[in-house]
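agent: user wants the structure for LmbE family N-acetylglucosaminyl deacetylase from Actinoallomurus bryophytorum. delegating to structure tool.
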Amino acid sequence: MIEDVARALMVMAHPDDVDFSAAGTVATWTDAGIEVTYLIVTDGDAGGFDDDVPREEIAPLRRAEQRAAAKCVGVTDVRFLGYPDGRVEATLDLRRDIARVIRQVRPDRVVVPSPERNYQRLAPSHPDHRAVGSAALDAVYPDARNPYAFPELRAEGHEAWTVREVWISAAGSGEHLVDITEVFDRKVAALRAHASQISETADLEGMLRGFLSANAERGGLAEGRLAEAFQIIPAA
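agent: tool returned. relaying tokens verbatim.
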């Protein structure tokens, strides 16, 4: 894990993905002075539970919820690509659009969802997650660093940038654990900001404690600790 990180970019498929997977970790980074940017590929327009809310109102609602959630963990730069929720594919267009933001933000570290299917739990393997994970990894290498890939980006003034490290969230065995016990309340607050999505979650805090304590126990942390899990890949 590189230590001298100035900027990090979180590339996720839907509003709330970053909060379920990494909001506690983000809080520890912003507290340490790291500048964090969120790039959300879709507006989450296929989400929600209330048939009384017109579908055309969901996208702006979920954008607003994500911005509110980001503030809970010290993030103010939240960007959206507007791809259709539930229909994301790892296309050249998506690779280009992610590479553009990498070149704009120029992060040392990029966090992405896993491009692999999880056969223990289906939820982390949403097709949009896998597509975004795959496209984001390709955007990191080779697209963002190669000045001759997507020449239109250079024509726009976005010079090539080499990311030094990638973190994959919801990874399998051999994870890197981040102890988020001290900022757990901020993770919960960030998720509660997604009111349109958690209305049917009876015990959000208990559910989170279950997952996070299992991570901590698996990694040998002390009893009562809570941790988010990642796989770290050198990228430079």
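agent: one observation worth passing along. The chain has one domain: 7-202+228-234.
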